[in-house]
Amino acid sequence: MPVTDKSVAASVRKDDEERVDTVDRWDESHHGKGLIKPPDQLELTEAELKEEFTRILTANNPHAPANIVLYNSKRYRHASVTQMIVHFVVEGSLLHQDSDEARRQKQIGCQPEPPPRSNFSSLANQWVIYDAYMEELQKQERNKEKQKAAPSKKDPDNTKRAVVSTDSHGHDISKVRKAVKIIERMVNQNTFDEIAQDFKYYEDDSDEFRAQEGTLLPLWKFQYDQAKGLSVTALCWNKKYQDLFAVGMGSYDFNKQEHGLLVFYSLKNTAFPEYSYPTKSGILCIDIHEQHSYLVAVGFYDGCVAVYNLNKEGMDAVHKSTAKTGKHTDPVWQVRWQKDDLDNNHNFYSVSSDGRVASWTLVKNELVFTDVIKLSLNGAMSEGTEGSQQPIIACGTAFDFHKEIDYLFLVGTGEGKIHKCSKTYSSHFLETYVAHSMAVDAVKWNHFHPKVFISCSSDWTIKIWDHTINTPIFTFDLNAAVGDVSWSPYSSTVFSAVTIDGTVHVFDLNINKYEAICQPAVMAKKKGKLTRVEFNPIHPIIIVGDDRGYVTSLKLSPNLRKKPKAKKGQELATGPEVEVAKMDKLLSLLQQPENSTA
Amino acid sequence: MAGTGEGKKEEADYKRLHCFPLIRETDMPEEMKVETMELCVTACEKFATNNESAAKMIKESMDKKFGSSWHVVIGEGFGLEVTHEVKNMLYMFFGGSLAVCVWRCS
Fold it and tell me: Fewest CB atoms within 10 A around its CB: which of A36, A361, B34, B60?
């Protein structure tokens, strides 16, 4: 049944009731009879009229929406969302704002970047400004010069530029030269480390077992590219810098005369020479001044002598003798510095195959010579033209000055004779010794004993002499031509000799009077001849030169360096006196038997 | 004495006269460099005694011509360390004793 009917019915009833009430009240007043029905009243059956309808009345508003989004303040979020309608969906991802991606997006996208910046710093001072201007002016001047030169000549311009560039190169190199030199030495020392260690510290222990013998330990070998084909003709240690030695290169061969080379090596840098001077003619002898170790006297195959100054730059000799100034006409075999003369000029002597012993003095940058002595064959006079008698001149091949007696010196000749001469006597010999049957290759005074000297020759022998006696004290036959002999600086009885069969012989008269105590073959027999030998003044090494241009250094084992043993309680007397005494003892031992066998 | 004094003065003047503007360091493009250099020379010659006015003139002209935030220093003895925008820096000598530095940095 429609609600409206019911409600109408209700309202009707209410109306009825009201009406009844009112009617009642009215009735009270009026006493109306029966129900009055309005004409449009719904007609309901009596059963329907009696139907009961229940109505519930609550406080809730039935029209209010049932689903509200409530904010749950306890949980700080919206809750109880029961109905949701999605209006818009987009898929996306989150980026942290500092991440690379984010930064890149920013860059590409929106923000303008600040322009790139850089720092600049400088100093503005009066002198800086002045210098800058001076430079600029110079540049301008150079430009002007170039412009002037350019139209006229173009080649010198290029060379000027080339020279300028090499100059700047040279400047650069010279600045680091010292550093480079030190590094080169370091590298060399490291490369040859074992050798350097041996040189310093190695002592051959087996010497204890070999009482009479010693050994020579090969150390460095010095070779120089430019010296190929030349033989070592002279060796000389520097007295002041004992690791520096000079090597003179040339050729002994008469037919093959080429250029020569003067080379200085230092033990600190064994791979490359410290100084090298090429020369036109082969060198035969060198001597380094004792006090002024930068002055080197050189004698050449062509008869010239020259003096080099190591301090000065340049490849040339400081002084050189020429045909005018009295050079020798034959090869100069030996040069020796002397003490400065009375005018404090340096001077040196030279001996040559032309039979002259000459003295050269450095007078105010010039080389002045004087003939000291002319070597003539004793007794042999040839008949010259017109009956005049001319002495036949002998060739001088070696000489040596006495260590203490200044004016006394010995000259060895090509005929095998040794003459004892004095500087003061120019034509007369003090004495002559018939020494050898062939040319005397070297003659050397003993460093300690004032009377003893040694000589060697191509006749295979070495002879030791006392200059007061005409006959040799000792004679050694070495089975091969002896190139050079040298006394040791530390002992009066030790000397060393080299032969052309490539052997070095070391003798110690104290230990063995007849044989060498050490004879190592330094070079294979057919490969080369040894030409020179020299002892180092302080280190126990010797250097040996050969005809291939190599210099080998060898270390002497302890047996070769024996010093006299000190008796218990006595102090070891140093140096010369002991050595002299040693030699004297030997000589005295030998005097009697020698006299008997001579 | 007076003679030598005058001589020195002459020398100094001569030096200043025959000492042209010398650009020491710059990273400006060619046109900008030439313009700026000429501007500096003009300003320094105009305000030979007053570095501040010269600098002011240079800075204002630069701002007008090339954009904002230029800085100018003129002097005879100073050291400097600046951060400048790339391709916006000029450092030159002038007159035998003046040094001018112009740079931009916003």
Answer: A36
Residues of chain B neighbouring A114 (CB-CB closer than 8 A)? 106
DSSP code at position A42: P
In 3D space, the residue among A277, A192, A292, A293 whose CA is nearest the CA of residue A242 turns out to be A293
pLDDT at A562: 67
Question: DSSP of A57-113, one letter per residue?
Answer: --SS-TTS-S---EEETTTTEEE-----------------TTSHHHHHHHHHTTPPP
The residues that bridge with A466 in the sheet, in sequence order, are: A452
d(CA A135, nearest CA chain B) in Å? 11
Tell me which chain A residues have a C-beta less than 8 angstroms from the C-beta of B24. 122, 132
In chain A, whose CA is at the least distance from the CA of B79?
A123
ipTM of the complex: 0.79
Q: Is B96 on the interface with A (CB under 8 A)?
A: yes
Residue owning tokens 């409600």: A7
pLDDT at position B59: 93
User: Taking 90 as the threshold, does the pLDDT of residue B33 lie above it?
Assistant: yes
CB distance from B11 to chain A under 8 Å? Answer: no
Q: Which helix (DSSP H) or strand (DSSP E) does residue A334 occupy?
A: strand A332-338
Q: Rounded distance, CA A128 to CA A491, Å?
A: 67
Measured between CB atoms, does A112 come within 8 Å of chain B?
A: no
Mean pLDDT by 10 residues, chain A (598 residues): 52 53 50 69 76 83 67 61 76 79 70 78 86 88 86 51 46 74 85 78 68 73 79 84 85 74 84 83 85 84 83 76 72 83 79 82 77 62 43 76 81 85 77 85 83 86 84 83 85 83 81 72 65 84 84 80 50 54 71 46
* Separation of alpha carbons A497 and A490, rounded Å: 16
A130 touches chain B (CB under 8 A): yes
Amino acid at the residue A416: G
pTM of the model: 0.55
Output the pLDDT for position A516.
72
Task: Please indicate whether, in this complex, the C-beta atoms of A121 and B79 are within 8 angstroms of each other.
Answer: yes
Q: Searching chain A, which residue's CA lies closest to the CA of residue B73? A: A124
Q: Tokens 């200043």 — which residue?
A: B16
β-pair partners for A369: A360
| Cross-chain Cβ contact A115/B79 below 8 Å | no
Residue B83 CA to residue B81 CA, distance in Å, equals 7
Nearest to B44 by CA among B5, B75, B15: B75
Q: Which domains does chain B have, with CATH numbers?
A: 20-104 (3.30.740.10)
Supply φ then ψ for residue A50, to 5 degrees.
-90, -10
Q: Which residues in chain B are contacts of A121 at CB distance < 8 A? A: 79-82
Q: Measured between alpha carbons, how far is A551 from A231 in angstroms, rounded to an integer? A: 10
* pLDDT value of position A157: 45
**How many Å is the Cα radius of gyration of chain B?**
15
Q: How many CB pairs under 8 A join A and B?
A: 68
DSSP assignment, residue A559?
G
